[in-house]
Amino acid sequence: MSPIRVYLEGLRAGRRQLPTEAAHYLARVQRLAAGDRFVAFDPEAVLEADATLLHVSRQGSECELAVPRAARRAELGVTLMQAAGKGDKLEEVVRAATALGAAEVRVVVSERSVARPGSERGARLRAVAVAAARQSGRGDVPRITGPLSLLDALGELSGLTQALRICLHPRAALPLADAIAGSAAGGEALLLIGPEGGFSDAELASIEQSGFCLAALGPLTLRTELAAIAALGAFAARLPGAPDRL
Amino acid sequence: MSPIRVYLEGLRAGRRQLPTEAAHYLARVQRLAAGDRFVAFDPEAVLEADATLLHVSRQGSECELAVPRAARRAELGVTLMQAAGKGDKLEEVVRAATALGAAEVRVVVSERSVARPGSERGARLRAVAVAAARQSGRGDVPRITGPLSLLDALGELSGLTQALRICLHPRAALPLADAIAGSAAGGEALLLIGPEGGFSDAELASIEQSGFCLAALGPLTLRTELAAIAALGAFAARLPGAPDRL
User: Fold this and answer.
1) So what's the pLDDT on residue A204?
2) From B76, B176, B220, residue closest to A99, measured CB to CB
3) ipTM, 2 decimals?
4) In the list A63, B43, B86, B173, which could disulfide-bond B114, CB 3.0-4.6 Å?
């Protein structure tokens, strides 16, 4: 069994109060009792610490933390540039991107983006990423950035040297696996996924001018969030498992 | 824009009544009027036909079908052997597997399967597959088979010659992309995905004895349905797009 993991900010060795949410998760959801062990993790600081539950009550709950250690960073190296879609699909994408090891999710807004998410949505997406990091055993979280317009996002890339830049496109003759085969597994890459309805021809011209190659995930039409998840799967499939994992 | 697609059983050239559900979808959801065109498809027969809506009313709706033609079969060649999980996760897997082009979804029940789906669930899963085929532009549907026990499913394979047999495992040293790199893109493959909690050691021994190699999608822990979707993404990533698609 993997250890039970709980998000705690500001890890330091010693005795400390548990926030209500963490205490609830340990005592009610996971049914730990005083003396039981768990792992506290702070994915923003990329730290984790062995912990012991000391007591749980309505008046307050406490744990004892060992000296924090560096947590395992995800190794995928992919920045997912995801055009915003309808409803809560971005949450689905962030959840899967975190579990698959993406380095960053950069939300972009394109001509045909249906939803134009406000920046206040970032806090919600970061909470989704922390929860997905806990479940997947990941010691860090992807950066969640944006929303910014596609053209601004492309503009930010000029002068940068990220070698591999791929935009998924359903009519591309190049299979995604061939597009990534020449690069190092886990190396830096930008993966751009269009919204429902795709990018406009003008947008595609700008995308190609910015050094992106167009690549496909087969001949079928994929929902934008399925395209993102399946494409990240093709990247993650190049990494070995964790032989030392419990 | 892709043509509007509607599921109709038993395609034949000529005038015909539309079932209530199809008429509702065309007139209310897609807002077609008399004279508008659509494509009728029967993914179980792998046929489709150009169609014209003739009239829609509460008393009955009719369309005119052209001569049916063979529809495009999916080209992935992968049979997904999916251990049953909790809740409605199988629906999520079938939806994505259809859109990514899987040839078959074979539901298996293993020691740690949480849900043991009755065979009556097959009709529901087939409906999910038909809807996903419509949305993805796929002209056929994956076969949905099972549930059967893991050992029976492995027994059925003895004597068969499917060359590539892969079981995902989070501790495998072999990356999935390396496991599939030697096979033809779109070629026949069996992809076995464990339930929440994984396969037992005894099950893994039987799986390896049946000719499966263990492969990983990176070092992180994936929910079973995310593992299935991401792994199918790694297979689909080897196929080109559809340059002739509208």
Assistant:
1) 96
2) B220
3) 0.90
4) B86
- Across the interface, whether the CB atoms of B219 and A226 are under 8 A apart is answered no
Looking at chain A, how many residues does it have?
A: 246
* Chain-chain contact of B170 with A236 (C-beta, under 8 angstroms): no
Q: What is the pTM for the complete model shown?
A: 0.90
Q: Which residue of B has its CA nearest to A246?
A: B171
Q: What is the CA radius of gyration of chain A?
A: 20
Residue of B nearest to A93 (CA): B226
Same domain, A160 and A196: yes
- A66 and A83 housed in the same domain: no
Interface of A with B in 192-221 (CB under 8 A): 216-221
Report the pLDDT averaged over residues A183-199: 91
Strands (E), A19-173: 37-42, 47-55, 61-65, 69-70, 78-83, 104-109, 143-149, 164-168
What is the residue range of A180's domain?
A: 78-236
Task: Calculate the CA B224 to chain-centre distance.
Answer: 16
Q: How many structural domains is chain A composed of? A: 2
CATH number at residue B125: 3.40.1280.10
Asked if the structure places residue A246 within a domain, the reply is: no
| Per-residue model confidence as pLDDT tens digits over B198-220 | 999 999 999 999 999 999 999 99
Question: Are B159 and B56 part of one and the same domain?
Answer: no
- Rounded-to-integer distance, Cα B79 and Cα B198, Å: 19
